[in-house]
UniProtKB/TrEMBL annotation:
Keywords: Oxidoreductase. This is TIGR03557 family F420-dependent LLM class oxidoreductase. CDD domains: Tetrahydromethanopterin_reductase. The lineage of its organism: Bacteria, Bacillati, Actinomycetota, Actinomycetes, Streptosporangiales. It comes from the Bacteria. It comes from Halostreptopolyspora alba. Its EC number is 1.-.-.-. InterPro entries: F420-G6PD/mer, F420_G6P_DH-rel, Luciferase-like_dom, Luciferase-like_sf. It is an enzyme of class 1 (oxidoreductase).
């Protein structure tokens, strides 16, 4: 079992994100994972630093902890050639500690360049072509590519690591699970769904299984739930809504009626380690083996201390209960 920490770039300034990554390494996390957003989910979050600058800073300020994007959409706001170059440079800066998480994106971040928002089937086709382009460029030398959606013309990435980064592909259904098995090295999910793990394995996938585990630590339960609602209520409507709304103000409106009771059904919350472990167990039972712990509580350093003293050892011993 590998345990990671979610760097919530939408909720904290770039300098604070780098500091939290350093603290995550200090207290024993195996990896940090960070989203690649242009906008925050909620207007009230107030931040959304550029992920590749953040990763470069974290890479040079840490020595052991692994880094991952969770996740990058490589075909609208970016071209996959740029993602291939950025990820190769990141891997070099951190001596191979980097995993490139890729996904089909959200309108929230990708519409800003004015290219429209394709249907999910088309986005999966574009994601597949993007992975092909990225792997081509990682193989060295000049390459061109002519796909149904994407083109590459006579391009080479000159600074490449000896071993290419692992690619984890975001999975929310059987189609993306099959895509991950056929074109990726790992899967990335946000829900405790055994069907995703099963579909990945049935299609031949045998790599790492990343997932985000929603927790909210505070010294009392009411504070923890209040903070979880303030920071993470955007996740309650589910992925079909999260992928489609265009701006933070829309998420503010769509989640206005989300209650603290709603958050309690999803999050481990409060000061008791047993409650947090019970939520983590759901994801272990679903078949995931790389748990990225989200802290929606108001005190990151309190959470780091809590992890080191009460959560680190028992969460690593969790096994599927079935």
């Amino acid at each position: 079992m590998r345990i990671g920490y979610k760097l919530f770039a939408e909720g904290y300034s770039p300098r604070e994100i780098v500091r939290q990554a350093e603290r995550a390494e200090e207290v024993g996390f195996d990896f940090v994972e960070i989203s690649d957003h242009f906008h925050p989910w909620l207007y009230s979050h107030g931040h959304s630093g550029f992920v590749w600058s953040l990763l470069a800073a974290v890479a040079t300020r840490t020595a052991r902890i692994e880094l991952a994007t969770g996740v990058t959409c490589p075909f609208l706001r970016y071209h996959p050639a740029i993602v291939a170059q950025a990820s190769a440079t990141t891997a070099l800066l951190c001596d191979g500690r980097f995993t490139l998480g890729l996904g089909a994106g959200e309108r929230l971040n990708e519409h800003v360049v004015g290219k429209g928002w394709p249907a999910v089937g088309e986005r999966h086709e574009m994601l597949r072509e993007s992975v092909e382009i990225i792997r081509l460029l990682w193989s060295g030398g000049y390459h061109s590519f002519e796909g149904k959606h994407l083109r590459l013309e006579d391009a080479q990435v000159f600074d490449l690591p000896d071993t290419p980064p692992r690619i984890a592909i975001a999975t929310g259904g059987p189609d993306s699970a099959t895509l991950a098995a056929e074109h990726g090295d790992a899967i990335f999910a946000t829900e405790p769904r055994p069907d995703l793990v099963s579909a990945y394995g049935a299609s031949g996938g045998d790599g790492a299984r990343y997932v985000e585990v929603p927790l909210s630590w505070a010294s009392d339960e009411s504070t923890a739930l209040r903070s979880a609602r303030a920071m993470f209520r955007f996740s309650v409507p589910g992925w079909k809504v999260m992928a489609e709304l265009p701006n933070p103000v829309n998420f503010e409106a769509a989640t206005e009626l989300v209650s603290e009771d709603d958050m309690a059904t999803l999050f481990g919350y409060g000061p008791d380690a047993a409650d947090h472990l019970a939520v983590a167990q759901r994801f272990v039972d679903a078949g995931f083996d790389h748990l990225a712990l989200v802290n929606a509580g108001p005190d990151p350093d309190g959470f780091f201390d809590f992890f080191a003293k009460e959560l680190d050892e028992p969460i690593r011993t969790l096994t599927p209960s079935g």
